Structures are given as structure tokens and as C-alpha cells.
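The following record pairs a protein chain with its ligand, S-adenosyl-L-homocysteine.
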Amino acid sequence: MKNIRDKKSKNKGKNFKRLDNNKSNIRGKLVTVDVVKTTIEGKGVVSYQGEELAVADLLEGETAVIAIDRQNGQLSAKVVELKRKSDRRVVSPCSYYEACGGCQLQHLSYKGQLDFKSDKAMEVLRGLVEVRGVLGMDDPWNYRNKNLATFAMDKGNRLASGFYQEFSHKIVEVEDCLIQDAEANAIIKTVSEMAGKFGLKAFDEDRGHGFLRHVLIRRGYYSGEVLVTLVVASSVFKGQGNFVRELVKRHSCIKSVVLNVNNKRGSVVLGREEKVIYGPGFIEDSLLGLSFRVSSSSFYQINTRQTEVLYTKARELAGLKGSERVIDAYCGTGTIGIIAAGQAKEVVGVELNRMAIRDAVSNARRNRVGNVSFVNQDAGEFMVGLDARCELFDVVFVDPPRSGCSLDFLRSLVKLGPERVVYISCSVESLARDLEFLKGFGYVGSDCFLVDLFPWTYHIEAVVLLEKVK
Ligand code: SAH
């Protein structure tokens, strides 16, 4: 595949000079610009002929020569040379940083990232809640417990693995991702090597032939257990037994291997059909001393160490005393509710995904938590139902997807009238919108903490306590 980077051109290690390396692909008009601010995605904003342009790899306060190109009426720009550098700029230790796009802030020091994320969150949440602090990591590398690689054949008909480039279907070959788990990186390498030996070809979506699409590796941070999910285009896997035997022999931490069949076009990784070909089909890990089951498709926060920081803060903000009835809305596999149950009278979790609910029920059982139950329903519909039955709850945890809560959900939440709402969000923008709505109905944001679950990317998690004004 033509977009897989030539191995020889890889420039590993700290001396990697991305700007120089890049000059060959530069097109367009060269101009010198000052960066006046940054976007929430961490791009530098510059002004060109009265238009604002967001340019990757530029920091506030920097001056740079950029190449500006116009294609199909759309302006795009690339950094050619830095004239004035920010003192927060660092050299990314990752050789794939620019081509990959999975991380956006590796040119900014870790301290600089935390400041950047809290400044942006404060800007967006101004007037709604006070941001009290940002909780970062001591060692912000190799933090992902969920690891993915995509396969493609390279020019030499060799199977290579890597990531889709941002907003594209092109693959950047990556051998060692610095935010993925180190053992997972090693397993990805083994799978690629073994695929060659077993004659397995990468799936070619355009031509509709080939077999291997992706490998998804989940590794328990505390347990060290590994679940390997091979995403393939057909359920017929010639040499399956030998392949699995050798893989498990080479990585004894592998507790389970699942074959997931996805023969659809598009960038959705997992298909619907799944077959366990080794072990129980899931792994176990723990969070705050409780044990959780993780399968290939269930939602599980990708940074275990920081999830514990987040859940501890959420539980603290909820201020549970033991007598409260609690809702865990958008509960996934029930983690927050099960962790809070020890300090509450009763917890009810609600979640749309049926598989996640199945895991939640099993998680409650495995931890012998008897005062939590789960409902498989749209969170908005569930809340409307509670309202109709005039049920009473004291505290509601809310942890929706990026898009935030539905209007139905928010309307019923205010009718339910819990004393406290602990809102966890991975998008400060949808959080701000929902806080604005809740503020109009007497819920005031009293505390907000940011937890860095995604170092080197622009993403940040926020946890907010809302209290009902008496
Ligand atoms: N609280 C969990 C999961 C948070 S992710 C944890 O900390 O692990 C958000 C969850 O919301 C996902 O599990 C997703 O399946 C679920 N979800 C998305 N839309 C929903 C809806 N309309 N109603 C209920 N759950 C929903």
C-alpha cells in the first residue's frame, strides 16, 4: 500500500526533526505568521488575508513560516520553519507523530498540555462552574489499556500494521506506539510476523479480498491479563488452531483470543459476529480494588490509573453517606455505580448497550454488590419513566457520550430533583451546553476538576458537582 511509510525513512528517537523531514511535501505560498491563540484541538490560529487559519504543530506566541495552499476553495497550511519557538515546545520522542495524527500535542511539554487543557476548559465553562484543578499523570506514557492496529499490505507485498491517518483511510505504519501498552505493541508485532508465516493477507477494502483487518488488544492494568481480538473479513480461518497456539506460547499473558468477523466497508472496527477461539472471551481487571470483566466490545475507560483518579473524585463530590438512592446514568459496564454502591442505600444503573448491561450485571455479582440493579434502556426514556412514577432519588451520576445528554434526559432530571448531580464528561463543549440548561432550572455547578485521561492528545475529562439551589 502506497501510504505505508518506507521503513528506511523512519527517523527514530529524540533527534527526529519533523520540520526538516517534511520539506519535500511542502506546496503553496510561503508566509511568515504569528500565532495569536490556539483552538480547543491544540492547533495554532494565524491570520492570513483577513481569514483565520488553524495550523497543526504551532503553539501560542510562536512565529513561523508556513506554506499556504488552496485546494477546492479550502485553505490549508503546513509549518515550514519556526522563527520564534515557545518555551513550552518540546521535541516529540515519537517518530510517527506527524504522520499518524493520533496525538496532537506531542510538541507541547506535559506541564504545558495540562495548562492548555485547563485554560481551554475554563474558557468554555466560564460563568457555569469554577475549574479547581487538573489532575495529570506522573508518567504519562504507555497508558492505553485498549490498543488497536490496522493491517495493510505494503508495496513489497509484506503485511504491515499501523493506524489510520486522521480523517482518512490511509494507513501509517507504526511499530511502537508510545501511548499504547508496551506488551500490546509487542503482540501486534508478533501477529504481523505470524501472519506472514501463516500466509494471511491484509483485507483490501477496495478489492474486497484478504483476511486480516485489525487486531484489538485489551490489557488489564492490574491483572496483566490480555484479550486479543482478531478482526477478520471471514469466519473461515485456515490454520486457526496453530496460529492461536503459537501466539499464546509467545505471549503467556494472553488469556483469551476472539475472532470478530467484519466484512462491511467503512471504518467501524468491530463487526457483529464473534467467536471465542481461546479462553473465556473476556479478561478481568480491577478498579479501586473491585474486579471488572472486560470483553472486546464493552466500554471500559482506556486509562486505568486515571480512571481511578476520576472515579475517586466523582465519589468524593457525590458526598454519599450511606442512606442515598443513586442513579448511575450512562453506566456502561456499571463501574461507577458498583464503586459508589458501598456508600449508598441503593444504586440503579441505566445504559443503552445490551452487552454492556450484561457485563454490568456480572460485575455486580462478581463483587458481591447486592444493592445495585441495571436497566437496559435509553437514559432519557428511563428518566421520563421515573418522573411518571414519581420516584425519588438523591444523587445522580451522569456520564454521557461526547454529544452530552438528551433534552428529555435533562428535563426529567430537573423534575426528579436530586440534591446533587455529578456530571462526568469527555467534551467540555457539550458539558457547558448541559450546565447552561441545568442552571436555568436551579442547578448550580459548585466544583469542577479535570482529569487527564488522554495525555498527548487534546482530550480531557471533566467531573462537575451540581447542587440544587434551595
Ligand atoms: N459510565 C461508564 C460509561 C461511560 S461512556 C464508564 O465510566 O465506564 C457512555 C456510555 O453511554 C456508553 O456505555 C454508551 O453505550 C452509553 N450510551 C450512549 N447513549 C446512551 C443513551 N441514549 N442512553 C443510555 N446510555 C447511552
